[in-house]
């Protein structure tokens, strides 16, 4: 980034909108990419963001034509952007995938019921079929029931285990070949650090894999493995995507 000085004082850096996009050189820059610090326009950002995800999919051979792919959809920013981008790339590059939204209703009053409304809108907005599986139907109780029985301590651990199982069972009902999740580069870095602190060598060796569970019935893929969380937020903001952003009351 250029800087200049007057009378020994450093001037503040120019705003992105005060110069031209370094990619196209035609439109005004609208943002500075957190990943590369390039000042680019929105249009170029969309192209670069989507192409990087496409290259990740192609280079890692994540999918095969004709596969049924369940998108883990929580209504949050990551899964919403994933659903939108994957549906766009499937159309643009002729992946030949059958895409579905798969949501889990944990039964958390005031949180999941609201976020599921977002997913239901995404179903219409993106033209993707939606399947919702609930703890109540699968296990006979909700997270609210569990919290009443055991209290708030360790409830996130319980919920995480049950949710992974629910996704697997939901994907099986859809006869899916793959499950994709919105785990991004920040999530993976956090998991690496946690496993180092815990001394969990077994998990550390596999937590960075882009595809896991290949020895199981339904593998899971992370197309956002190299995608920064900040850029996902920026993409959702500029595209005006419809997502739910309130944290679970049980985690507060």
TrEMBL record:
Record-linked InterPro entries: CTU1-like_ATP-bd (IPR056369), Rossmann-like_a/b/a_fold (IPR014729), TilS/TtcA_N (IPR011063), tRNA_thiolation_TtcA_Ctu1 (IPR035107)
Keywords: ATP-binding, Nucleotide-binding, Transferase
GO molecular function per UniProt: ATP binding; transferase activity
Alphabetical list of CDD domains matching this protein: CTU1-like
Residues at which ATP binds: 72-74, 78, 104, 182, 187
Zinc is among the record's keywords: no
Gene Ontology biological process terms from the UniProt entry: tRNA processing
UniProt-listed Gene3D superfamilies: HUPs
The tRNA(Ile)-lysidine/2-thiocytidine synthase N-terminal domain, residue ranges: 69-248
Annotated protein name in UniProt: Cytoplasmic tRNA 2-thiolation protein 1
Organism: Zea mays (Maize)
Gene: LOC100193637
């Amino acid at each position: 980034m250029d800087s200049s000085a007057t009378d020994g004082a450093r001037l503040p850096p120019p705003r992105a909108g005060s110069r031209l996009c370094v990619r196209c050189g035609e439109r005004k820059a609208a943002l500075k990419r957190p990943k590369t610090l390039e000042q680019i326009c929105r249009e170029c950002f969309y192209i670069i963001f989507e192409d990087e995800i496409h290259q990740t999919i192609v280079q890692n051979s994540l999918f095969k034509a004709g596969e049924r792919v369940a998108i883990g959809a929580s209504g949050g920013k990551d899964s919403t952007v994933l659903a939108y981008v994957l549906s766009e790339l499937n159309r643009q590059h002729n992946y030949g995938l059958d895409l579905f939204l798969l949501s889990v209703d944990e039964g958390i009053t005031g949180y999941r019921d609201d976020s599921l409304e977002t997913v239901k809108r995404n179903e219409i907005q993106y033209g993707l079929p939606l399947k919702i599986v609930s703890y109540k139907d699968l296990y006979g109780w909700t997270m609210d029931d569990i919290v009443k029985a055991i209290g708030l301590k360790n409830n996130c651990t319980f919920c995480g285990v049950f949710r992974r199982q629910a996704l697997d069972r939901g994907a099986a009902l859809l006869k899916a070949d793959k499950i994709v999740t919105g785990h991004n580069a920040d999530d993976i870095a956090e998991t690496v650090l946690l496993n180092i602190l815990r001394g969990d060598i077994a998990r550390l060796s596999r937590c960075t894999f882009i595809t896991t569970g290949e020895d199981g019935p339904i593998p899971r893929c992370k197309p956002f493995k190299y995608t920064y969380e900040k850029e996902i937020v920026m993409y959702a903001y500029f595209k005006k995507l419809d997502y739910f952003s309130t944290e679970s009351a049980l985690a507060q």
